[in-house]
């Protein structure tokens, strides 16, 4: 037996929290017990003779592994399995128009752009063709924009409903995720979306004062905080199996009065929401950011919110775009792997034709998924590799797969690894508390 390459230990309140990123398991042990473990690191098998309970606990949770096990090769295998499995990630972009003008948005909005009935039929044909090829078992559609709900009744709902009919008839599993600003949601829309196995990502950038300076309407410069808050409650109160990610794009001012936002969310059903924290990409952290971020996370976890920060998840690919069965279909029929860059001809990866066939630019696709994003020396020796899987493949392409150290997530991370382990441990407790769907606010 030997020690796993992916163990991290950190002290918390006089005890030791251990986290294995390969198994995604935690252990909590007294410091004196941890000292016993450390004394046997060079000959871990003998630990079982001294403290069998500790030895078995470490072995069961992946901290101690068989000598013949090669964890890096296992990650390579898992990466290939996920990259080429039978799950289809399809992004549909019904419009690049938007009713808001958030200052940090990188997209060039296209007023009046709408998906035609011809392209909608091509998408139906595409799904039918993929079913004919028997290429997937489950289909996950992400509705993106622009604001995808601008033409809900004319485009999104008819197309979404017809796709559900297709997948139901053919025994395929369908789920829908709406990346929406939440300003157009009403009760009638929610009742329709509740039939479609829908989840949501909706943004609230701080409390009302802060948010209403950032996410404002194009038509009259009005803030949108109150309307979005109303939409969040509409979803969680009317869709039984709703799953909502509340995204907070933060700069150095956003988190200062964040408690006001969480007070406004005090009655929301915790088991249906997760809070995702993401620094606005045009800003850089300053020395005070870390304290504010950690205080925000502590406030969230103390009040039983599940929190996501840093993008460290067990998925075995760094991004869904690294998967073979993944595509983003624009309103005009052009196809893109990455939907985090402008939808220009330069970034286009293929075209959808009337029959439903995507003609890919194979040279572009092969450059993206022909190499693994984690086969850099900095990655192979990193304890966070099982949760990260390397830099963004889009950035790898843009940098010709060279000098990727600057694009390591940890380079711009506003926590130490030890701080992150404590956050993850507290977050696990919050998730378990959510099983009781608590609503307390302290």
Keyword list:
11-stranded mixed beta sheet, 442 residues, disordered C terminus, 3-stranded antiparallel beta sheet, TIM Barrel, 35% helix, alpha/beta
How would you describe the overall organization of this protein?
The chain has helices at 31-39, 47-50, 52-60, 71-83, 117-132, 152-169, 187-193, 208-211, 225-238, 258-264, 289-302, 362-369, 377-380, 385-388, 393-398, 417-434; strands at residues 2-3, 7-12, 15-20, 25-30, 64-65, 87-92, 138-143, 173-179, 198-203, 244-250, 273-279, 306-309, 326-329, 334-336, 350-352, 358-360. The protein is an alpha/beta fold and 442 residues long. The protein has 2 domains: 2-69, no CATH class; 73-442, Aldolase class I (TIM Barrel), CATH 3.20.20. The chain has 16 helices and 16 strands. It has an 11-stranded mixed beta sheet with strand order 12-11-10-9-8-7-6-13-14-15-16. Strands 2-3-4 form a 3-stranded antiparallel beta sheet. Strands 1-5 form a two-stranded antiparallel sheet. β2 and β3 form a beta hairpin. The longest helix has 18 residues, at 152-169.
């Amino acid at each position: 037996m030997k020690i796993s390459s992916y163990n991290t230990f950190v002290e918390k309140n006089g005890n030791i929290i251990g986290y294995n990123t390969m198994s995604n398991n935690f252990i909590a042990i007294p410091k004196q017990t941890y000292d016993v473990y450390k004394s046997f690191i060079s000959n871990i098998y003998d630990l079982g003779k001294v403290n069998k309970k500790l030895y078995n606990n470490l072995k069961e949770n992946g901290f101690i592994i068989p000598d013949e096990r090669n964890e890096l090769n296992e990650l390579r295998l898992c990466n290939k399995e996920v990259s080429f499995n039978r799950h289809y990630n399809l992004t549909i972009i019904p419009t690049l128009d938007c009713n808001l003008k958030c200052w940090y948005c990188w997209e060039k909005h296209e007023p009046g752009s709408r998906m035609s009935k011809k392209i909608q039929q091509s998408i139906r044909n595409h799904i039918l063709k993929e079913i004919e090829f028997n290429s997937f078992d489950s289909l996950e559609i992400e509705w993106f924009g622009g604001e995808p709900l601008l033409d809900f009744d004319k485009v999104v709902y008819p197309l979404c409903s017809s796709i559900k009919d297709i997948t139901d008839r053919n025994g395929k599993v369908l789920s829908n995720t709406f990346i929406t600003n939440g300003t157009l949601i009403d009760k009638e829309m929610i009742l329709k979306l509740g039939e479609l196995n829908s989840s949501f990502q909706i943004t609230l950038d701080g409390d009302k004062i802060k948010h209403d300076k950032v996410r404002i309407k194009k038509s009259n410069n009005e803030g949108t905080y109150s309307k979005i808050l109303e939409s969040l409650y509409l979803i969680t109160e009317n869709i039984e199996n709703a799953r909502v990610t509340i995204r907070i794009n933060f700069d150095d001012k956003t988190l200062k009065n964040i408690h006001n936002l969480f007070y406004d969310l005090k009655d929301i059903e915790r088991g249906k929401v997760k809070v995702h924290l993401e620094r606005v990409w045009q800003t850089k952290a300053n020395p005070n950011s870390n304290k504010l971020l950690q205080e925000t996370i502590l406030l969230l976890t103390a009040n039983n919110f599940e929190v996501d920060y840093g993008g460290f998840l067990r998925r075995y690919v760094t991004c869904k775009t690294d998967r073979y069965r993944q595509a983003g279909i624009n309103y005009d029929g052009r196809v893109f792997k990455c939907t985090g860059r402008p939808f220009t001809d330069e970034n286009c990866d293929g075209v959808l034709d009337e029959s439903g066939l995507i003609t890919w630019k194979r040279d572009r696709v092969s450059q993206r998924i022909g190499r693994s994003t984690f086969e850099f020396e900095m990655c192979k020796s990193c304890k966070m590799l099982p949760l990260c899987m390397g830099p963004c493949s889009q950035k790898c392409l843009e940098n010709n797969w060279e000098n990727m150290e600057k694009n390591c997530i940890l380079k711009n991370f506003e926590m130490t690894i030890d701080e992150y382990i404590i956050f993850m441990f507290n977050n696990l407790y919050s998730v378990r508390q959510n099983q009781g769907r608590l609503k307390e606010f302290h």
